[in-house]
Amino acid sequence: MLKLFLYFFLFTISLFFTACEDKAMVTLYAKEFSQKKISCMRLVVFPPDKMIQDSLKELYTFEDSCAFKLEVSKKSGITCNSNQNSDKKALTNFPSSYLKIVVRKDSRLIYSYYIDLLDSVSEQDIKDGFARVQKDLKLTR
Fold first, then answer.
1. 10 lies in some domain
2. Could you report the per-residue pLDDT of 101-130, keeping only the tens digit for each?
3. Given this model, what pLDDT does residue 105 score?
């Protein structure tokens, strides 16, 4: 129980230092996939977005029957209510949207890419995020 509390405490503290920054956060949950090659993925975009779907289909050939799933989500018009960022809100451009790319095998979380953005999600943001996924997971195709 103490170990669980310690993990939760460290996670919470890390949020205070990284809340709403504009750098990508990448997490590889299944280390074995940094060495193995993923040969296929199916695409899920939520909420549905034609620009995101079309951009990704130009970069990769997706298969609907694959066990690996690339989930892409975005949100725009968001605000960060953290008091720790009041100086950033007042003195700099503050993020108003995010892009999240997740890879799963069946229901198992494999990989996560998350970035806060100053503007709406652009085609270049999609390309940059997917390039990072390809590099980190050694995607074939």
1. no
2. 999 998 899 999 999 888 889 999 999 999
3. 92
Which SS3 state, helix, strand or coil, does residue 77 take?
A: coil
- Longest pairwise C-alpha distance within the chain: 48
Of the candidates 123, 128, 102, 122, which has an alpha carbon nearest to the alpha carbon of residue 114? 102
Instruction: Compute the distance between CA of residue 96 and CA of residue 100 in angstroms, rounded to an integer.
Output: 14
Evaluate whether residue 59 is within a structural domain. yes
| Percentage with pLDDT > 70 across the chain | 67
* pLDDT at residue 91, rounded to an integer: 55
**Boundaries of domain holding 115:** 21-137
Instruction: For residue 64, tell me if it sits in a domain.
Output: yes
Q: Could you give the number of structural domains in the chain?
A: 1
Instruction: Name the token pair of 27.
Output: 């997490």
Q: Which pTM was predicted?
A: 0.72
13: in domain:
no
